[in-house]
Backbone:
């Protein structure tokens, strides 16, 4: 806790200066916001979060939760294997996930390309040509369990009676889903979305290991940018300003999240 | 007293309220199981690679049954890549973090639970807020801070930082646990003449043991998996933990594209084993605990 | 409006060593109010669900209006089910809840409105229409569940212990209302309950079940006065029938403590030892009866239940409100010959 506190005050000392402590005021911030690369970085971050968190993890998590809940109500056993598999990907350290996907995406011998070649098509340079996509998929693999768990929790609270009553009332499967399952999820969906966005925002190791922000800066998200600027160019101050921007953005999300979750409770 | 007819035998338990949904056509059965197969395959494939490549003499990046089963990869990582040091360091740091965290968190959680403060809600709020900070944002400030304080490349630094990461969440968790321990347990102890401290130790802690177990488990796992902080805090060979060891094989092999997969897989296997062991043993507890933290990497 | 037939229906759940429903055969007349009565686990709810289509029989047939419904989806059977938990859709208003079955069938909005209003009026819940189920009391929720069933104008109403979640006073009140409603609408109704008083007050006929088997089918009076076996005899009636072992002796039955009661004409099995049942109201405290000692008197306002000790047995006697013997008093018991029921000692089947 104190680490975070002091980092805040610390940045006031260290952040607004270059490697040699010198007070330069808001120069760094100015530099940051006028940096054209920064715009790309922001753009990348948005694309990544939207792609991975919203489109990927949110939707996939929802689908998985619905699938698993339905399977449980119908007493299908095999579902628990799928469930454990999804969780396994999430529970293990990110470093592992990163390296596993490095292997997957490897151009010459990675699993994906080997599979493609076996099917007769040419290998794809995933990390070179489709870096953002590659990184998004890897992160989806890693993080879907989170939303899945949230939705699963919500779905479990729906008593089977409701579905049976709907059945007797005449609703078919699609109808039951649309009229009863989805509306019950609506309150928690917003929270889940916010939650997963916050979570995905700070993703670092995965992207760093897979593409290191490249090629060029095509997958440079804000977290990587902070790191690179601070440690490559030894501009600690500048790195700190980026970090501050990140923290502020994140805090904004967090406040929203906490307020909404308390309103629901 | 009286003879009851065979019809009125002992009653069988009513089928539980959560009845399975009847119905479900054959088609649905097939489709759903196909879906589960696909999902399981997608999520498990990388792990399959991990466990096969680790034992492969000429490990490739794609999944295949090893053409030559060997333990050589494991031997190599210990011989040439100082994995033993990395392992030692990881274990030491993780265990120390766990111990430190549990002590701090238990006391903090207990205090927060029992003390009457006007703005207690705000403190809880603040704590939760802190937990949502993405680590990658704090990397830079912590680097600076650690450098100033001389905490880089030291066990102390690692342990402190690692503890700090999960601290807010775990304090909140412990507070919740202590909240659920009714006060009159301690009050009875006080009336019996024990001091507050002894009461805490003898009465409350045993009751909160599950919570402590969860906190211990989570802090261990978090420290075990931690790589961001280690990256910025450590650059001495002797201090590296396992995650950094991974990167070592990465680079020493020359170019960016040359990854020594066999070695990486071997390290990976050793690295994930504790995690998987704990996972399978305590599935439910972990899920609940991990779900409450919104930290991402 | 329809007839319902269960024809040798069997159902056993996986993992249970006894069938839930065994050879159930039942004919229900058009417009009848039939109660399925029995203790928990006797199979009454399973039987109901099979009729609704939420479960399917392993063997046997279920027919509505002479046509088999086994294999039909619930919605094609034209039956309405009121759940014990009411199963109201929590995210919809009361009006939308009631409207739902009509909406699903694609009825025109005007028609929907008309029917909903009518159902609401019938159950006097018009003022609740805009609210949500979560805002209603138990009794109100129950009416909404009923309205949702009525609005469809189905052939059969099925009710699964709809009153058991209500508090006692509301329950007795709703009982009469429900019965009146059913008579007004004239729709065949199958009602499941474990409460024998409920069954007695509401049913045209009662089907008593135990452990999946039908024990007796008959009008309430019938089932009360002439139980087919010991189980029914003891399940129906409050306080329960006194059951005593008896020895046959020369045209009379000798009960505990040497009490001789007249023996009714029996289906003779030749057994010497039998089981005799006497309802509390079939015993009176008279001057010329068999002596017994009072243990305790339970005054209930309109009557008094006197617990007496007879040999080893405890016998309950129903008397008028002014008779109030004290513990330790000696009284004399007399049995009404018309109220003596005899059962086989081993099988429990009624012999008279």
Residues:
């Amino acid at each position: 806790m104190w680490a975070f506190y002091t980092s805040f005050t610390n940045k006031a000392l260290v952040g607004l200066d270059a490697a040699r402590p010198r007070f330069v005021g808001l120069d760094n911030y100015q530099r940051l916001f006028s940096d054209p690369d920064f715009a790309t970085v922001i753009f990348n971050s948005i694309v990544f979060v939207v792609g991975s968190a919203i489109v990927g993890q949110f939707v996939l998590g929802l689908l998985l939760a619905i699938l698993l809940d339905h399977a449980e109500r119908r007493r299908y056993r095999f579902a628990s294997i799928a469930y454990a598999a999804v969780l396994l990907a999430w529970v293990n350290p990110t470093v592992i996930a990163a390296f596993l996907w490095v292997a997957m995406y490897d151009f010459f011998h990675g699993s994906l390309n080997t599979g493609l070649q076996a099917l007769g098509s040419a290998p794809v340079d995933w990390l070179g040509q489709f870096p953002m996509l590659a990184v998004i998929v890897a992160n989806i693999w890693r993080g879907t369990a989170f939303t899945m768990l949230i939705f699963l929790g919500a779905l479990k609270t729906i008593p089977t009676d409701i579905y049976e009553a709907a059945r007797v009332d005449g609703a078919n499967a699609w109808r039951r889903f649309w009229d009863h399952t989805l509306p019950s999820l609506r309150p928690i969906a917003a929270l889940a979305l916010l939650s997963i966005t916050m979570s995905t925002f700070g993703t670092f190791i995965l992207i760093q290991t897979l593409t290191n922000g490249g090629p060029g800066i095509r997958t440079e998200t804000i977290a990587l940018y902070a790191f690179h600027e601070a440690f490559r160019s030894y501009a600690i101050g500048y790195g700190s300003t980026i970090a501050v921007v990140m923290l502020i953005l994140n805090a904004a999300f967090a406040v929203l999240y906490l307020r909404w979750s308390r309103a629901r409770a | 007293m009286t003879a009851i007819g065979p019809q009125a035998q002992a009653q069988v338990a009513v089928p539980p309220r959560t009845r399975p949904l009847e119905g479900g056509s054959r088609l649905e059965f097939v489709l759903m199981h196909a879906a589960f197969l696909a999902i399981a395959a997608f999520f498990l494939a990388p792990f399959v690679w991990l466990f096969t490549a680790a034992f492969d003499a000429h490990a490739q990046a794609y999944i295949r049954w090893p053409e030559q089963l060997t333990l050589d990869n494991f031997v190599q990582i210990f011989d040439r890549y100082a994995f033993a040091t990395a392992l030692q360091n990881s274990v030491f740091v993780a265990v120390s973090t766990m111990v430190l965290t549990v002590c701090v968190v238990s006391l903090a959680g207990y205090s927060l639970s029992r003390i009457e403060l006007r703005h207690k809600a705000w403190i809880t709020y603040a704590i939760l807020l802190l937990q949502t900070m993405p680590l990658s944002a704090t990397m830079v400030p912590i680097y600076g801070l650690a450098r100033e304080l001389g905490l880089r490349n030291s066990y102390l630094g690692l342990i402190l930082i690692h503890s700090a990461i999960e601290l807010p969440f775990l304090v909140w968790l412990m507070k919740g646990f202590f909240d659920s321990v009714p006060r009159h347990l301690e009050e009875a102890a006080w009336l019996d003449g024990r001091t507050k401290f002894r009461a805490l130790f003898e009465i409350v802690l045993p009751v909160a043991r599950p919570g402590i177990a969860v906190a211990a488990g989570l802090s261990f796992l978090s420290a075990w998996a931690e790589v961001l902080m280690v990256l910025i805090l450590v650059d001495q060979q002797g201090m590296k933990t396992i995650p950094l060891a991974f990167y070592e094989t990465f680079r020493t092999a020359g170019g960016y594209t040359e990854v020594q997969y066999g070695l990486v897989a071997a390290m990976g296997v050793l690295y994930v084993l504790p995690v998987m062991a704990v996972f399978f043993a305590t599935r439910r507890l972990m899920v609940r605990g991990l779900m409450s933290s919104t930290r991402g990497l | 409006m329809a007839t319902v037939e269960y024809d040798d229906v069997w159902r056993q759940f996986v993992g249970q060593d006894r069938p839930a429903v065994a050879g159930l055969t039942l004919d229900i007349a058009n417009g009848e109010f039939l109660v399925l009565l029995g203790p928990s686990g006797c199979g009454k709810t399973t039987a109901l669900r099979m009729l609704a289509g939420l479960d399917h029989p392993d063997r046997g047939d279920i027919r509505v209006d002479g046509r088999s419904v086994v294999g039909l989806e619930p919605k094609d059977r034209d039956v309405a089910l009121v759940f014990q938990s009411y199963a109201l859709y929590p995210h919809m208003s009361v009006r939308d809840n009631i409207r739902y079955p009509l909406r699903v069938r694609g009825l025109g909005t005007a028609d929907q409105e008309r029917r909903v209003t009518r159902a609401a009026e019938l159950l006097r819940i018009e003022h609740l229409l805009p609210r949500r189920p979560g805002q209603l009391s138990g009794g109100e929720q129950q009416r909404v569940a009923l309205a949702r069933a009525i609005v469809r104008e189905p052939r059969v109403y099925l009710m699964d212990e709809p009153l058991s979640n209500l508090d006692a006073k509301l329950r007795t009140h709703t009982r009469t209302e429900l019965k009146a409603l059913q008579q007004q609408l004239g729709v065949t109704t199958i009602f499941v309950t474990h409460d024998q008083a409920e069954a007695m007050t509401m049913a045209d006929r009662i089907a008593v079940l135990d452990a999946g088997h039908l024990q007796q089918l008959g009008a309430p009076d019938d089932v009360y006065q002439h139980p087919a076996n010991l189980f029914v005899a003891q399940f129906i009636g409050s306080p329960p029938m006194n059951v005593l072992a008896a020895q046959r002796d020369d045209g009379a039955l000798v009960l505990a403590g040497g009490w001789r009661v007249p023996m009714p004409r029996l289906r003779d099995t030749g057994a010497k030892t039998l089981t005799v049942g006497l309802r509390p109201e079939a015993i009176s405290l008279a001057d010329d009866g068999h002596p017994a000692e009072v243990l305790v008197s339970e005054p209930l306002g309109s009557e008094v239940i006197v617990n007496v000790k007879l040999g080893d047995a405890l016998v309950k006697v129903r008397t008028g409100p002014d008779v109030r013997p004290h513990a330790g008093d000696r009284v004399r018991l007399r049995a009404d010959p018309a109220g003596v029921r005899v059962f086989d000692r081993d099988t429990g089947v009624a012999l008279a």
Summary: The interface with chain A takes residues 52-54, 73-75, 79-81, 83, 85, 87-92, 100-101, 104-105, 148, 152 of chain C (CB under 8 Å).
